[in-house]
Amino acid sequence: MESLLVFTSPPSTCSYLPGRRAALTYEIVAWMTAAEYQERLKAGWRRFGFSLFRPTCPSCTACQSLRVPVAAFKPDRSQRRCLAANAGDVRLEIGAPEVTDDKLDLYDRFHAFQSDHVGWNDHGPKSAADYAESFVDNPFVTQEWCYYLSEKLVGVGYVDRFPEGLSLIYFFHDPDERTRSLGTFNVLSALRVAGEQNLPHVYLGYYVKGCRSLEYKGRFRPHEVLGGDGAWRSAVDV
Fold it and tell me: Under 8 Å CB-to-CB from 118, ≥6 apart: which residues?
């Protein structure tokens, strides 16, 4: 790994929990291997493109890194319904990341819906260059998971694969198909693929109790969270 810059942002309004202050430590890298990133991920880091980050909030530890042990996972009733509703209709294609007009349009429509209905900040249309910086240009090989309903693109996810598991970077979907719970289906698909490839864990990123957009991760059980001492432990109360 070649590190170019490390810095911590000044505290600002938290985008997950209203009324709290948040800060992130960033590390910009020129390159790194998947195995090197795996060790950072296990220590609580995440990434977009060449930018690694982790919360370093002055008075809050609500962001919890969460992963699911693949062999132990059992879908609940709602997740089984999601599988039944989508498995025969929605097709998954895994390939290399690339920018297309369909993906840009889907990304913008998803964020516009989230802004109107969930309270996300409205960022406006995403340019091809910004999209490539976030999802296509990576320090090691990253997978692009595209979901199709017939020939219509209805979901796109980005996934890192490394020796000990899969890490789900980001997922967006067609808001007109929201009754299909495609976000849940994406996680279930990752757990299935990890099982087929004998990978022990699927990393879901940060869980934040009280944040509507992130609480769904706690429904994939059993799961483990990263403690302040750097140890991963089974959790039943998130």
Answer: 212, 213
